[in-house]
Amino acid sequence: MTATGGAARGTAARPPAIDGPVSAPGDGARSAALMARARELFPGGVNSPVRAFGGVGGEPFVVARGEGARIWDVDGREYIDYVLSWGPLVLGHAPPAVLDALDDAMRRGTSFGMPTALEVELAEVIRARMPHIEMLRFVSSGTEATMSLLRLARAHTGRDRVLKFDGCYHGHADSFLVRAGSGVATLGLPNSPGVPAALAALTVTAPFNDVEATAATVRRHAGELAAIIVEPVVGNAGFIAPDPAFLPALRALADEVGALLIFDEVMTGFRIAPGGARERFGVVPDLTALGKVIGGGLPVAAYGGRGEIMAGIAPQGTVYQAGTLSGNPLAMAAGLATVRSLTPALHDRISDRTATLVRGLREIAARQGVPFSADHAGTMWGFFFREALPRSYDEARDSDVGLFRRVFHAARVRGLSFAPSPFEAAFMSAAHGERELSETLARFDDAVRAARAAA
Ligand code: PLP
C-alpha cells in the first residue's frame, strides 16, 4: 500500500458529504451553531478539555471530515492538519490501508469479548519493533495503560510512591494529576480538585532534564519509590527533548533505589523512531505504555514490559485489570494496518519531511525577526516563540504565549490546524507531501506577518 497523497482512496466506500461541497467555504456559522448546542450538552462544549480552545481563546471549529493531510470543517473550510487526532494518524486521515482493514474486520463482527487473531498479530508486530516489551496487555486509552502500570509497579515493588516530571502528562488517573502537562497545563490547573490529598502525596515531582534535582528527590524517597515515569521526549508541555545524559541517569537512579523505570510512549511510540525511545536513546525501560499510533485512530493503548513483571497481571498474576472492549477487533485491525504500513523506510521519509518543515519555519521566523525555536524527533515536532528551545516545563512557559495565540488564529484562518495550545506537540503524517509543505510555509509566513501587525 502507499500511504502518501491526500487523493488516494481505498476500496472502502467513501462517506457521503455531510455539509455539501467543500469548494464554497462558509463563515463559521455552522461551527458556531453546533458549538452552541454542544455547550448545552457537554462541559465547556467538548468531550476533552483542550479541544475547547481555552489556551488560545475563541471558538473551536467543528470537523466534518478528513482526507490525507487535510481536514474540512462543517463550514467547508479546509485546513492542513498538524494535530492529527493528537498523534495517532501517522498515515494521515482516512488512509486506504486502514479503511480497507476496518471494512474487512467490521464485516466479521465488531466485538466479541473473546480472544481474536488480530490481538496476537498486533502484539507480535509491536514486540518485533520493541523487543523489551516481552509481554503486553491491550487497553482502550493511554490513561488506562499508565494507570495500570502504576498499579503493577506498586504491586511488584511493594512500594507506593511514584516520581513524575513537571509538565509531563500521563493521562488523567488520580496519581498523575500532579504538576501535569497537556490540557491541565493549558488551563492552568496542574493539580486537580477531587484527587485525595493522601494519594497526591504519594506522587513526587522533579524538573525534566534536571539530573541533580531528580537524583536528590529519588534518594530522598529511596526505599519508598515504586516507579519513575517519564515521557522520553515530552510532548505535553510543548515539545521538549531530553538532554543526552537525562534518560541514562533515570535508568541508573531507578536501579540504584530498586524502582521500576516506566517510559510513557503513548505519544512517542512509533513516532520518535520505528522502535521508540529504546531505539532512539539506547535506554531500556522496565515497563512501557503505548497508545495513539498503535490504534491508527481507533481507541487502543497497551502496557507491557519485562515478562517477569507482566506475569503479575491477572489472570496470570493477582494485579487486577480488565476491559470489556480491550483488544476490540476494529481497533486492532486499524492499529495493525497502521503499524504494518509504517515501515522504517516510511518512518524515515516522514521524519525527513518533518525536518524540512521545522527548518522552513525557523527560516521564516528568522526573516521576520521573531523569537522562535522549533525541533523534531522523528515525526513528532513542536515550536515555541522563544529564542532557545526549552529544556523544561518552566522554560516552556517562559515563551511568548500571546504571540502564539495571535499566530495560532492567523494560521487557522489561513488553513493551518495546529494544537490550540503552546503546550502541545505537533505531528506529521505520510500524507504531508511537498505540496502540503510549501503551502504550510507560505501560510505560516503570512500568519506570522499578520500576527505581528496585529500586536
Ligand atoms: N500519556 C501521554 C504521554 C499522552 O500524551 C497521553 C494523551 O495525550 C496519555 C498518556 C493519555 O492517553 P489517553 O488520552 O488516550 O487517555
Question: Can you give me a brief rundown of this structure?
Answer:
The protein is α/β, with parallel strands linked by helices and 455 residues long. It contains 15 helices and 14 strands.
Structure description:
The protein is an alpha/beta fold and 455 residues long. It folds into 2 domains: 179 residues, Aspartate Aminotransferase, domain 1; 246 residues, 3-Layer(aba) Sandwich (Aspartate Aminotransferase, domain 2), CATH 3.40.640. The chain contains 15 helices and 14 strands. A 7-stranded mixed sheet has the order 4-10-9-8-7-5-6, with helices on both faces. A 4-stranded mixed sheet has the order 1-2-3-13. The chain has a 3-stranded antiparallel sheet with strand order 11-12-14, covered by helices on one side. The radius of gyration is 21 Å and the shape is globular. The termini are far apart. The N terminus is likely disordered. The protein binds pyridoxal-5'-phosphate. Pyridoxal-5'-phosphate (PLP) binds next to helix 4.
